Amino acid sequence: MIKLGMPQLYEYDTIEDNLKLAKELGLDFVELNLNFGYCRKEMEAKTVKPLLDKYGIKATLHFYDEADLGSYPEVVDAYLVLLERYCKLGSGYIESMNVHLCPGPVVTISGVKNYIYEKEFDEYIKRLIANLHRAEKICNTYGIRMVIENTDNIPNYTKKTYEAMYDAGFKFCYDIGHDHLSYDIVQSILEDIPLEFQEFHFHDGKDRKKCHLALGEGTIDLKKFKELTIKHDAWVNLEVKQASDLRISVPYFKNL
Question: Is the CA virtual torsion 203, 95, 54, 85 positive or negative?
Answer without folding.
Answer: negative
